[in-house]
Amino acid sequence: MPNPIYDVCVIGSGAAGGIVTKELCEGGAKVILLEAGAEVKPGRFRSHCWPYEMPFRGFRDEKQELFYPPDLKDSIRYEQSDNVGVDRIRVLGGRTVHWNAVVLRYSPADLREQSLNGIETDWPLSYDELAPYYERIEQMIGVCGNDDGIETLPAGRHYLPPLPLRCSEQILRRDIAGMGARVISVRKALLTRDYDNRPACHYCGHCMDGCDVSAIYSTPGSMLPKARRTGNLTLRQNALAREILADRSGLARGVSIIDRATGREEEISARVVVVCCATVETARLLLNSKSATHPDGLANSSGVVGRYLHGHSGSQLRVYLKELQGQAPSNQDGALDQCLVPRWDTKSFRGTYDFQVNFSGYMFPFQAHAVPGYGSAFKRRVREMQPGFLMLGGFCKVTAHPDNRVTVDPNRKDAHGIPIPVVQFRFREMDREIYDAMRTSALSIADRLKGDVTLTPSVEPSGFASHECGTVRMGQDRKTSALNSYCQAHDVKNLFVTDGSTFPTSSEKNPTLTIMALSLRAADYIKERRKRGEL
Ligand SMILES: Cc1cc2nc3c(=O)[nH]c(=O)nc-3n(C[C@H](O)[C@H](O)[C@H](O)COP(=O)(O)OP(=O)(O)OC[C@H]3O[C@@H](n4cnc5c(N)ncnc54)[C@H](O)[C@@H]3O)c2cc1C
Ligand code: SF4
Questions:
Q1: Which of 394, 482, 488, 525 counts the highest number of beta carbons within 10 A?
Q2: Does the beta carbon of 99 sit less than 6 angstroms from any atom of ligand 1?
Q3: What's the gap between Cα 106 and its chain centre?
Q4: Listed range (63-67, 248-252, 271-275, 520-524) with the worst mean pLDDT
Q5: Is 483 touching ligand 1 by the criterion CB < 6 Å?
Q6: Which residues line ligand 2 (CB under 6 A)?
Q7: Could you tell me whether strands 353-357 and 339-341 are parallel, antiparallel, or unpaired per DSSP bridges?
Q8: Nearest to 492 by CA among 260, 324, 249, 276
Q9: Annotated domain spans of the chain
Q10: Proximal ligand: closest to the CA of 144
C-alpha cells in the first residue's frame, strides 16, 4: 500500500503543536502529529513523591527526569556563552506537562520596540490583530485572574475566579505599595472551578512536576482528546523529525523521521508542514534540512534562521517574614504562585521586568541551608521560620541580537545521527541594565520587608528560565526575517513555524500565551487557504 499523504504534518506536541493540531483536525484536515517523545501517563508522574523516596531527594530533578531522556543533555554544545541553558524536552505534550502556566498577554507597546524605543524591531502584526486570538485561547485553555486595569498588562474578558492572596503575599502588597509596585492575582491556565470537562485545582502545589488531574492546562489533557474525537488525528510518538524534505520546486513535501524505539528511518508525506519543536530544536531542524533549492537550510534565504536567540534572564529573592515566623507550620503550597508583581516602571526600558511570587513552594525547607548549627535547636529554628516563607523570582526582558544564535555542528551527531545544536549567547549592555534594575528593586523590596533574607539575586544574570525565543523570527521584510505575520515561511509557502522561535522581540512576560495565540492565528490562516485551494 502506498504511504498516505496527510493534509498537514505537525512536528512537536507542546504548547504550539497542541493548539495547531486540535484546530486543524476540527477544521477537517487529516493531520499527522509527530512527537519525538512518548506519553507519560499521569499515574506515572512523580508529583507526589516525598524527597526521601528519591535517591538525591529531588535535588537532581528526579521528579522531571521522565520527560528528559538522558542522551538529550549531552547532545548540545554551548560555545562562547554566558550562563544560559535551554530547555529541550522529549515527551508527549512538550513542556505543557510540567509548566507553571502563568499566561500574560503582551501589550501593544511590547510589539513596537523599534517605533517606540528605537531598539530591536517591530512585530509584523499589531496588538489589535492578536487580541481576538488571545481572547479565544484564554477561553480554550481556561485562565483564572482579574482585569486589573493595567495598561502594560492587557486583560481578557473571560477569566475564571482569581486565586486569593496568602498571608505573606498580603504583607508583600502592603510593604511594597510605597515603591509604586502592585501585587495582583496571577493569571494562570489553571482551573479555579470545573471547566471544559476538567476538574478544578485541588491545590496540591505540584504543577511543575505534572498535574495528575489536568487542572492545569496541558496538550495531552486538553487538546489531544478533542483532536482525537474528530477522527482526523494520526499520532506518531517516538517520531523524531530528522529533516524536512523539499520537492524540486522548493516546497515542503514531507518529513524524514527516525523512530526512536526501533531506530528505523521513514518518510511521512504531507501537503503542509507546521514546525512546533520549540526555539532551539526548530532552528536545528530547519538548518539540518538542506537541499538544492535551500542550500543554507529550509526557509533561510535571509540567513536569519538560528539568529536572534533570546529569552528571559532572572534570579530569586527569598525572605522569611518575621511577622509570620513562629506560627504553627502548615502547607501553604496552594497553586504555587498565586500572585504577580507586574512591571511598574513603564517609562524606561530598564523597568522591563516583573516578579512571580512563591512559585518554588512553601513546603521545602530551603531555609535549612541558611540556618547555622545542628541538632534540636537547628530543627526548632527551621520549623519556626517556615510560615514566614516568601520568594520572588525576577523575570527580565532580554534583547534579540543577531550574534546570539543557534547553529548546527555537522561533525558532532546525537545518538540518532543528527547534527547537534550549538548555542552562542552573550548578554548585551541593555540586558545587563535591565537585570541590574531588577536586582536593585529586589534588594529594596528585601529592605522593606521585615524578615530574614536567605537568598538575594546573583550579581551576574543567567537565562533563559525555559522561555527561549527568537531563532526563526517573523517580519515584514523577507530579507531580514524568515516568516510572515501568519507564521508562514517567506520562502516556502506550505511551511509554517508557530513556536517561540517566531518572536522578533520579547518582553518581561512569559511567552506561552503569545505562542498559543500565534498558533491559533496560523491555524485559521491554514484553514482558510486550504479552503481556497491555495495549500
Ligand atoms: C518548569 C517550567 C515552567 C514553565 N512555566 C511557564 C509559565 O508559567 N508561563 C509560560 O508562559 N511558560 C512557562 N514555561 C515555558 C513553556 O512551557 C514553553 O514556553 C512552552 O511549552 C513552549 O511551547 P512549544 O510548543 O514551543 O515547545 P515545547 O512545549 O517544548 O514542545 C516542543 C515539542 O517538540 C518536540 N520535538 C522537539 N524536536 C522534535 C523533533 N525533531 N521531532 C519531533 N518532535 C520534536 C518535543 O519533544 C516537545 O514535545 C515553563 C516551562 C517549564 C519547563
Ligand atoms: S496545584 Fe492544582 S493545578 Fe497544580 S498540580 Fe495540584 S491540582 Fe494540579
A1: 482
A2: yes
A3: 14
A4: 63-67
A5: no
A6: 190, 201-207, 211, 213, 215-216, 335
A7: antiparallel
A8: 249
A9: 5-41+75-531
A10: 2
* Residue owning grid cell 510572515: 484
Structure confidence at residue 291 (pLDDT): 95
Per the rule left: phi > 0, alpha: psi between -120 and 50, beta: everything else, 163 is beta
CB atoms within 10 A of CB 46: 17
CA-derived radius of gyration, the chain: 23
Residue 364 has pLDDT above 90, yes or no: no
How remote is the CA of residue 210 from the centroid of ligand 2, in Å? 8
Which percentage of the chain shows pLDDT scores above 70? 100
Pocket test for ligand 2, best of 198, 216, 331 (most atoms within 8 A of CB): 216
Q: Is the dihedral of CA 86, 91, 95, 98 positive or negative?
A: negative
**Tens digit of each residue's pLDDT (9 = 90 or more) over 429-474:** 999 999 999 999 999 999 999 999 999 999 999 999 999 999 999 9
pLDDT of residue 520: 98
- Burial of 477: CB neighbours in 10 Å, binned 0-12, 13-18, 19+: exposed
Q: How many CA atoms lie within 13 A of 69 on its CB side?
A: 18
Decide if pLDDT at 482 tops 70: yes
> How close is the Cα of 92 to the center of ligand 1, in Å?
10
Give the residues across from 405 on adjacent strands: 424
CA-nearest residue, atom 6 of ligand 2: 204
Point out the ligand nearest to the CA of residue 100: 1
pLDDT per residue over 268-305, tens digit each? 999 999 999 999 999 999 999 999 999 999 999 999 99
pLDDT for position 332: 86
Residues 6+ apart with CB under 8 A from 236: 32, 33, 34, 35, 257, 268
The pTM score is: 0.98
- Give the list of residues 6+ apart from residue 388 with CB closer than 8 angstroms, or none: 168, 319, 320, 321, 322, 323, 324, 325, 451, 452
Nearest CA to ligand 2 atom 4: 207
Task: Please enumerate in sequence order all residues whose Cβ is within 8 A of that of 171, keeping only pairs 6 or more positions apart, or say none.
Answer: 321, 323, 324, 390, 449
AA identity, residue 88: R
Backbone angles phi, psi at 264, to 5 degrees: -80, 145
In the chain, count of helices (H) and strands (E)? 10, 17
Please indicate whether residue 277, judged by its CB atom, sits closer than 6 Å to ligand 1. Answer: yes
The average confidence (pLDDT) of the chain is 96
Angstrom distance (rounded) from CA 177 to CA 180:
5
**CATH superfamily ID and name for 5-41+75-531:** FAD/NAD(P)-binding domain (3.50.50.60)
Q: Closest residue (by CA) to atom 51 of ligand 1?
A: 99
Question: Residue 361 — pLDDT band, cuts 50, 70, 90?
Answer: confident
